[in-house]
Amino acid sequence: MTEQQSYEEKIDRAVLVGLSAYSLPKEECATDASMEELSALLETAGGICVGMVLQQKDTPDPRTFIGEGKVAEVKELIAQTGADMAVFDNALSPSQQRALSQDLGVGVLDRAALILDIFAQRARTREGRLQVELAQYQYLLPRLTGMWGHLVRQTASGGKSPIGTRGPGETQLETDRRHIRRKIAKLKEELEQVRRVRGVQRERRIKNEMPVVALVGYTNAGKSTLLNALTGADIPANNRLFDTLDTTTRTLEISDTCTVLLSDTVGFIRKLPHHLVEAFKATLEELTFADLLIHVIDASNPEWREQAAVVEELIQELGAQQTPCIDVFNKSDCCLGDILPHGENIISISAKTGQGLPGLIEMIGKRLDTGACRVVIHLPYDKGGLLDLLYREASVEQVAYQQAIEVTAVCTPVLLGRLKEYIVSGWTPEIDL
Known about the structure:
The protein is an alpha/beta fold. The chain has 18 helices and 14 strands.
């Protein structure tokens, strides 16, 4: 019983390794901040950091990425700490990953693999699981050779290979490649179906003239807490990275004439694997169709400028840079600065305490204000055809058949102008025109 408990409670221990090379682009280099973030990612995945190595080098080593000397140092640290794996902050090529695993004697992951593992743990809906599975297969495909290396080596040793082992390595490798390519094609097909369903839902929303507001931001910036605070939703909001993977949408009443759909989205992070962004495009493309983006920024994080830049870059990659945006500095109650960020389309709030939320709702209302107005209209029965117009182009709330057809509806300014002679209350043409 005790042995079983200790097995269940076993936590993966990892040594974290990062390289900062002058020849690498700045965003690909490891820094103290990115290493701390990697440690938080490891904790989210259920592991624990037992050592950290940050290497400075002119150029990455083609075989081991960090160089033979540093590999020996990491191997010694792994032996001292009893680590089960090494996790690299930088992206490793399949051959580098294989070489490092052989030299260090433990499993080797890079940041992309760690993030994929977290996504696999967190995905709850069928759509989320499909997207994660697709990203995992795309990551795995170029790394298959190493998995069958033992069989490849057997065939490469000439006549010394045991009878019956010559050849199957490559055969199995090709079989697996074909299998994974088939899986990738099938997953893409299923995600295309998800896109089509989203497209139908989107057309319905457009028809109902329901504006969409999307929450975007760095992971753990407080998007889910903000959604809960604004809409009274009860979605999980924990202080950990990538707590939300599946999009959640709730209605938010801005005013008596404006109700919006507020969507929570997956958080972004620096060095987010490209194939992961590709796989999640079925979800993330909602950003390009949103009427307004709420960019949630963690004001209490000293690195908020770098984090905001990562989010803006990914918004641009997704083609949503033209969508109007409000910068919301969250966690302002924990902000270390004396002066809170302010300016046009900028607001400081605390989703946890409720500070600044009325101002945010007012700001959203102003950005989405279409001039719509709730009115009561009396249509003569010989003008009954206008009722069809109202159903098509307005939000009809109530219809009563009396001496005339009495309609209560929320109408746009254009529609108000067309129906002004039938409006009996809620709008005065002389004032508004």
